[in-house]
Amino acid sequence: MADVKKLYIKTYGCQMNVYDSERMAEAMGGAGYVTTEDAAEADMILLNTCHIREKAAEKVYSELGRFRALKEEKPDLKIGVAGCVAQAEGQEIMRRQPLVDLVVGPQSYHRLPQMEARVREGEKALDTDFPLDDKFDTLRQRPKAKRGPTAFLTVQEGCDKFCAFCVVPYTRGAEASRPAARVLEEARDLVERGVREITLLGQNVNAYHGAGEGGDWSLARLIWALNDIDGLERIRFTTSHPNDMDDDLIAAHGECAKLMPYLHLPVQSGSDRILKRMNRSHTDESYLRLIERIRAARPDILISGDFIVGFPEETEEDFQATMDLIEAVNYGYAFSFKYSTRPGTPAAERPQVAEDVKSERLQRLQALITRQQRAAQDAMVGRTVGVLFEKPGRMAGQMVGKSDYLHAVHVTDDRVQPGDLAQVEILESGPNSLSGRLVSV
Ligand code: 5AD
Ligand code: SF4
């Protein structure tokens, strides 16, 4: 029997990194690796890192330091850093932390097997080149392992928007879309392996413009084609930019049965002055009008967002404008962050807001968002919603899944299995999840 080696991957950051980690595991499958959940038994450890917020690199270095004892115990253990910190720091990582054998950027990991062969020979391997070849194409020959009911599928990568606070255009590169036929092929393959819900991923997913039959396809066109795949029951997509919400995509939210009533549409701030300084190219007003149009197409849609507080030169008045926007939109979910300086981005050079002011604003914003989130979840009580069950819950006989609106839902009923899509009457709203009773399987 071939020598089976174990690969431990720790994933930080966004869903695109989760998808990339799966692809890395598949690529390394070709080099004789199976994945493990236990770093102590690994022959190779990969940290798939995120660079979006402050101290990301420092956290990676301290995590790496923790592997020293393991490496001493097991000299053959190889350690790699992947993802956006790898892209941003490059060679510096191996200089600062000699334990590291391999550094691979988010656009180069399809070459991991060749890199692994080099590190096994005792060399160090660094690859942060942007691909001349299509990384996803190289990874097409995958083993047909069975999958859980939900999956991510990256359709678009990179970003040309250059928001003044953001490192993504530098670490992930220019905006690029995968050809529609490739996406559809991967989706059909996932469905054959048991997947019933696909979340299309991209840093700017609604800027999708992949080559397809008759010219470039929009995201709406891609969603309609996915809608025709038998066995695929649910479609989601994230993350979107307000400026790329075209009419067809808005209409799809009202008309496409498999497209779920949930939309993540980051606005970052409600102050036009700050939005301009952020280089966001939309206004408070244009965002609110957009939300109106989306709700006209799909009145029950749950909107989620991202917010940054304490962006350079943000005044109390600017912050208040963000709070007003939140009141006006009424979010079902949100992610909120204190602005953190990212070296190399334009905003890093501007006058900064004091840390205690940022913390205090974040607290107020999160209190408001939490109230809205709570209200949106509580409003589900008494309604009957679709739930795709994913796994057993903590209590005996309990199953957990996600509702159409992405709320976690518990049901105790031995008729449901992971992968079942059922109608559930919601009876109770708990701190972090809903519970209900099966209406139909
Ligand atoms: N500081 C704080 N938050 C940031 N984000 C991106 N860059 C920064 C930064 N420098 C947030 C934005 C984005 C989300 C993914 O991360 O809100 O939408
Ligand atoms: Fe970053 Fe999103 Fe702005 Fe692109 S649109 S620069 S990914 S925050």
UniProtKB/TrEMBL annotation:
Residues 378-440 form the TRAM domain. InterPro entries: Elp3/MiaA/NifB-like_rSAM, Methylthiotransferase, Methylthiotransferase_CS, Methylthiotransferase_N, Methylthiotransferase_N_sf, MiaB_methiolase, rSAM, rSAM_horseshoe. CDD domains: Radical_SAM. SMART domains: Elp3. [4Fe-4S] cluster 2 binds at residues 159, 163, 166. It is found in: Cytoplasm. Its EC number is 2.8.4.3. It comes from the Bacteria. Its main location: cytoplasm. SUPFAM superfamilies: Radical SAM enzymes (SSF102114). This is tRNA-2-methylthio-N(6)-dimethylallyladenosine synthase. Catalyzes the methylthiolation of N6-(dimethylallyl)adenosine (i(6)A), leading to the formation of 2-methylthio-N6-(dimethylallyl)adenosine (ms(2)i(6)A) at position 37 in tRNAs that read codons beginning with uridine. It comes from Roseovarius tolerans. The gene is miaB. Pfam families: Radical_SAM (PF04055), TRAM (PF01938), UPF0004 (PF00919). Belongs to the methylthiotransferase family. MiaB subfamily. Residues 145-375 form the Radical SAM core domain. Monomer. One of its GO terms (molecular function) is 4 iron, 4 sulfur cluster binding. NCBIfam families: miaB-methiolase, MiaB/RimO family radical SAM methylthiotransferase. GO terms for cellular component: cytosol. It catalyses: 2-thio-N(6)-dimethylallyladenosine(37) in tRNA + S-adenosyl-L-methionine = 2-methylsulfanyl-N(6)-dimethylallyladenosine(37) in tRNA + S-adenosyl-L-homocysteine + H(+); N(6)-dimethylallyladenosine(37) in tRNA + (sulfur carrier)-SH + AH2 + S-adenosyl-L-methionine = 2-thio-N(6)-dimethylallyladenosine(37) in tRNA + (sulfur carrier)-H + 5'-deoxyadenosine + L-methionine + A + H(+); N(6)-dimethylallyladenosine(37) in tRNA + (sulfur carrier)-SH + AH2 + 2 S-adenosyl-L-methionine = 2-methylsulfanyl-N(6)-dimethylallyladenosine(37) in tRNA + (sulfur carrier)-H + 5'-deoxyadenosine + L-methionine + A + S-adenosyl-L-homocysteine + 2 H(+). Its cofactor is [4Fe-4S] cluster.
